[in-house]
Write a structure and sequence with these properties.
Layout: H1 16-34, H2 37-63, H3 66-92, H4 98-122
Helix pairs in contact: 1-2, 1-4, 2-3, 3-4
């Protein structure tokens, strides 16, 4: 069953960076649905998994004691960098509209700034 809005799970008190990463999933999934099969089940699935792992690291950092937050945030930075490379592959392999990828890349850049600021604050 699909929900148009997350009425069962309140997102209003969530960290802005987590909301931004969460909001990337739908457009990525939408792009993946239009990919040729051989790309969808390799690059497409891998990109979704990277995004979910990024989300997992951010949630772990949110709940970790201050002394451990940096570890999760550094892992999140690695996942974000990997996600950037995969978006670049989307462009190079021409599996998605350039405009959509550029929009995603600008959101990723903003997430990167937020992540860098958070990491700086815990070091």
């Amino acid at each position: 069953m699909r929900y148009k809005d997350a009425t069962l799970i309140s997102m209003s008190d969530e960290l802005p960076i987590i909301l931004k990463v969460y909001s990337l999933y739908r457009p990525v999934d939408s792009i993946n649905e239009t990919m040729p099969k051989h790309r969808r089940y390799s690059l497409g699935n891998s990109t979704e998994q990277t995004l979910l792992e990024l989300l997992r690291q951010l949630i772990s950092a949110k709940h970790a004691p201050k002394s451990h937050k940096a570890i999760y945030l550094i892992k999140a930075q690695s996942e974000l960098e990997l996600f950037r490379f995969k978006l670049r592959l989307y462009l190079e392999l021409e599996v998605a509209n350039e405009t959509r990828i550029f929009q995603l890349q600008s959101q990723v850049a903003e997430i990167g700034r937020m992540l860098g600021g958070w990491l700086k604050s815990v070091k």
